[in-house]
Amino acid sequence: MDVQAGISPELRAAADELGAALARTALIVAFKEAQTRLDVDEHAHSLLDRMAELDADARRKQAEGTLTQADIDHVRDVHREASLDPSIKGFVGAHQAAAAYLPEVNTLLSELLGWDFAAMAAAPANC
């Protein structure tokens, strides 16, 4: 189904303009920059990969009943190391700030339009 088929050119232009304006906001720019820094940081990727492997291993061991305190301590150590990594920490903070900002945008749009923009913009539940 072509969702854009029922959208007027004016509405499409307004949506494109809103998207471009949001992309230029300081919080979204900071998020994109943090994503770029994380994307090129091999040490951060190594930490994230190791963290994912250890988490999966810990879940498997827990299900098997073989998880030890040493396993738990090791997982916590790697999580702590990841939380202190500048690229990971910057990305998480920028992501949280952007995620907190977007509901504010939805609220403002809803107030301006007089109806719940976020509810109307959401994909139908049966998709």
User: What structural class do you assign from the helix and strand content?
Assistant: mainly alpha
CATH superfamily: YheA/YmcA-like
Helix content, binned percent: over 70%
Determine and state the CATH class: Mainly Alpha
- pLDDT averaged residue by residue: 90
CATH architecture classification: Up-down Bundle
The low-pLDDT segments are none
Termini separation (Å)?
10 Å
Q: What general outline do the C-alpha atoms trace?
A: elongated
Short description:
This protein has 6 helices and no strands. It has helices spanning 9-23, 26-40, 42-64, 69-84, 86-113, 117-121.
What can you see in these coordinates?
This protein is mainly α and 127 residues long. It has one domain: YheA-like fold (Up-down Bundle). 80% of the residues lie in helices and 0% in strands. It has helices at residues 9-23, 26-40, 42-64, 69-84, 86-113, 117-121. The longest helix is centred in the last third of the chain and has 28 residues, at 86-113. The model has no long low-confidence stretch (mean pLDDT 90).
Topology:
Elements (H helix, E strand, L loop, with lengths): L8 H15 L2 H15 L1 H23 L4 H16 L1 H28 L3 H5 L6
Helix pairs in contact: 2-5, 3-4
Keywords:
127 residues, mainly alpha, YheA-like fold, 6 helices
